[in-house]
From TrEMBL:
Topology class, membrane: Multi-pass membrane protein
Keyword set, alphabetical order: Cell membrane, Membrane, Transferase, Transmembrane, Transmembrane helix
Record field: transmembrane: 38-58, 144-165, 177-207, 213-240, 252-272, 309-328, 335-355, 375-397, 409-429
Superkingdom of origin: Bacteria
Family: Belongs to the glycosyltransferase 87 family.
InterPro entries: GT87 (IPR018584), UCP010361 (IPR016570)
Protein name, UniProt field: DUF2029 domain-containing protein
Keyword Cell membrane: yes
GO-annotated molecular function: hexosyltransferase activity
Region (Disordered): 440-486
Major subcellular location class: membrane
Upper classification of the organism: Bacteria, Bacillati, Actinomycetota, Actinomycetes, Kitasatosporales
Length: 486
């Protein structure tokens, strides 16, 4: 276990963190001790995260006090929209319907015959509905439903920051990047994504502790909540291939499949049509907000019916490029770096980039590149997009078109938030190609503190050239253009 004195303090290693710390008394002094007494780094990070989450709830206050029920324009103009209250009635929870089993009346759902969310998210929504008691009419119940969900999602946020703070044993203060992320506070209660994000963070923590089966189980549960977490098996596959750690990968993949099946198979057997709705909807959904495909569609004036094909092709090509980069890099990349890149690739090529999707990337970005300047640049772009999408919707939903952001302005905002994500991807790729720029490896000489069995493991397979050999990356013969398990 890392001693408190060995913790990497951002105020000593990061110029932006040091400058920002002047607001609360300046950088840590020579007598500072992390972990002594009650104020441990993890407790501080959790308290900050809960405070920021509460501020995000306050930001939704105009909608809670009537904006959700006063027509579309009001909730967009105040930038406080949330799916949660609308789906309480719109997906049959107010009527006591069972998700996936009971068909939703068309006049209630607006055409969605079954709940279009994965099974574990549907269970989360159903539990919240059962806890929603005592509301005054449908509007009062929708307000209470949002509040119950906000409380449950706040617990997910606490789990998230604890997992991030503990994944890199010697860098718990990096969790403050997650806790203070503006986009986390702004988007946490738009939808139910934080459930999958917290489970994914738990899986990465378990992997960092060399518990691949537990990591796989948590990853399977996360995939039963949202589709994107299964993408993390790709980086694990390539990294374990390079290190020859096939047993660990097999346990993780097996745990993922088993956990996903335990949640999904019963619903598949008894309510196939309801279970399959999420996957059909994902495939059939047209080009939507936030994506580069929407810009192309709006600029051309024609529906982009082939977006699925192009998005899939770009995703496959991008994954192939990441696999080559992983096997060819002079030093094996860290798990968090590849996890961030593959999820970012999925979002960037997807036909929709909803504002809450930034939650998927925040913990991965912190573990991949815990640098305050780069993180804040990206968060600035995402915060701008958060305002931009609601102003655009306010413009399109208002009768007089005199308020909000017109189509051309919204396209500029989309480009800014896409470029912000691409910027962060670029610096992570640079860190992989030039490991001396990686703040995790540079600050304390570690190899991959989140890599579990991969940390300091020797390579058994690379492409083109042997890896850099040093005391941190591990030692051992390297097999060129072939693989052997040890």
């Amino acid at each position: 276990m890392t001693s408190a004195d060995a913790y990497v303090r951002p105020t000593e290693k990061d110029e932006v963190a040091a400058a920002g710390s002047e607001l609360i008394g300046g950088p840590a002094g020579r007598r500072a001790r992390d972990g002594g007494g009650w104020w441990s780094p993890v407790r501080v990070v959790v308290l900050v995260a809960l405070g920021m989450f509460a501020l995000g709830m306050v930001q939704k206050l105009p909608c809670y006090n009537g904006g959700w029920f006063a027509g579309q324009s009001a909730q967009y103009a105040h930038a406080c929209y949330s799916d949660i209250p609308h789906l309480y009635g719109g997906r049959g929870f107010a009527a006591g319907l069972t998700p996936y089993v009971d068909r939703i009346p068309q006049d209630v759902s607006g055409g969605m015959e079954y709940l279009e969310y994965p099974v574990l998210t549907g269970a989360f929504m159903q539990i919240a509905a059962k806890l929603t008691v005592g509301g005054d009419g449908l509007q009062g119940e929708e307000q209470l439903y949002w509040m119950v969900n906000a409380g449950m999602l706040m617990a997910c946020a606490a789990v998230l920051v604890v997992c991030v703070a503990r994944t890199h044993r010697n860098r718990p203060w990096d969790g403050l990047l997650v806790a203070l992320a503006p986009a986390l506070a702004l988007t946490a209660t738009i939808n139910w994504d934080l459930l999958a994000v917290a489970l994914t963070a738990g899986a990465m923590l378990a992997w960092s502790r060399s518990r691949p089966l537990a990591a796989g189980v948590l990853l399977g549960l996360a995939t039963a909540s949202k589709l994107y977490p299964v993408l993390l098996l790709g980086p694990l596959l390539v990294l374990c291939w390079r290190a020859g750690a096939w047993r660990a990968f097999g346990r993780a993949a097996g745990g993922t499949a088993a956990a996903w099946a335990v949640v999904n198979v019963p619903v598949m057997v008894f309510a196939w049509d309801g279970w399959a709705k999420f996957y059909r909807f994902s495939q059939e959904r047209p080009v939507d907000f936030g994506s580069v495909w929407l810009i192309i569609q709006q600029r051309s004036g024609h529906p982009f019916d082939d977006a699925n094909i192009y998005a899939t092709a770009l995703m496959v090509l991008g994954c192939a490029g990441l696999a080559f980069l992983t096997l060819h890099a002079p030093r094996r990349p860290r798990f968090a770096q590849l996890a961030f890149l593959v999820v970012a690739l999925f979002i960037l090529t997807n036909k929709v980039y909803s504002p809450q999707y930034v939650l998927w990337l925040i913990p991965l970005a912190v573990l991949a590149r815990p640098k305050w300047r780069d993180f804040l640049i990206w968060q600035g772009c995402e915060s701008l997009y958060f305002l931009g999408i609601w102003m655009y919707l306010a413009y399109t939903s208002s009768a007089d078109k005199h308020r909000g952001l017109p189509e051309e302005g919204y396209q500029v905002v989309i480009l800014i938030h896409l470029l912000g994500t691409l910027y962060l991807c670029a610096v992570v790729i640079r860190d992989m190609l030039l490991p001396e720029h990686d703040p995790v490896r540079r600050d304390d000489g570690s190899d991959d503190p989140g890599g579990g069995v991969l940390d300091r493991a020797p390579d058994v397979f690379t492409l083109g050239r042997p890896p850099v050999r040093d005391e941190h990356a591990g030692a051992g013969p390297c097999v060129q253009w072939g693989a052997s398990e040890r």
